[in-house]
Amino acid sequence: MPYLTDQPIDPSALLQSVESAERGGLACFFGVVRNHHAGRAVLRLEYSAYGAMAEAECARIVAETLARWPVAVALRHRVGRLEIGDTAVGIAVAAAHRDAAFAACRHVIEEVKRRVPIWKRELYADGTEEWVDPTRAGSGAEGQRGSEAAAGAGA
Amino acid sequence: MAITADRHTTIRVLLFASYAERLGRELLELSVPPDTTVGQVLELVREMPGGDQLPRHPLCALNLAHVGSDARVGPGDELAILPPLAGG
What we know:
The structure holds two protein chains of two kinds.
Chain A: E1 4-5, H1 11-16, E2 25-32, E3 36-37, E4 40-49, H2 51-68, E5 71-78, E6 80-83, E7 87-95, H3 98-115, E8 118-124, E9 129-131, H4 147-151
Parallel strand pairs in A: 1-5
Antiparallel strand pairs in A: 2-7, 3-4, 4-6, 4-8, 5-7, 8-9
Helix pairs in contact in A: 2-3
Chain B: E1 9-15, H1 17-23, E2 27-32, H2 38-46, E3 59-62, E4 65-67, E5 78-82
Parallel strand pairs in B: 1-5
Antiparallel strand pairs in B: 1-2, 3-4, 3-5
């Protein structure tokens, strides 16, 4: 199943793909392009990926999640040029009850951010462009681990 | 002990995003002795033009999976040097 797409992510299609009669709890997370980063006005951005590994890493994250919680999971990450308000990542999780749905959904987004090889180039209102480095102080990113910690992620 | 050239193995080294820009290329083919570690490959790459702009301990992936710098590369392996991840 392809986890990366250069097409818009459809939230209802993602939710429908995990729905079933026995699953009464649905949780979802959508990461949307915002118009500011570290105090600078963002016009748009471009995601690029190490495609083969990103697909493999997403598949591992989903498989680990399914092994840990009794859930169904759908995951999509956008690549290419995105505008403010576009959905960059979409996750839908369905479970019999809410606890597993929330926990698994949170797990998937945290692991995607920590492990999947995707990079973001932002274009700012002042005409400059920059690769986003979430490990750099003052980048405004939360919960990011340093490169040393992430190096062992696949183990 | 001299290591003859024919015992060397060829690996592909992939560079992405800011690292590809710093070295001016996305793909390197390197010939390395058997049992070379990822850390040793990184030292070779850091000696190339622009390579000194890479961090000493970047994220690395071998054949599509994250690895540490002590992992060993083999014939035909694909080693990727990954800038700080920014997905999600």
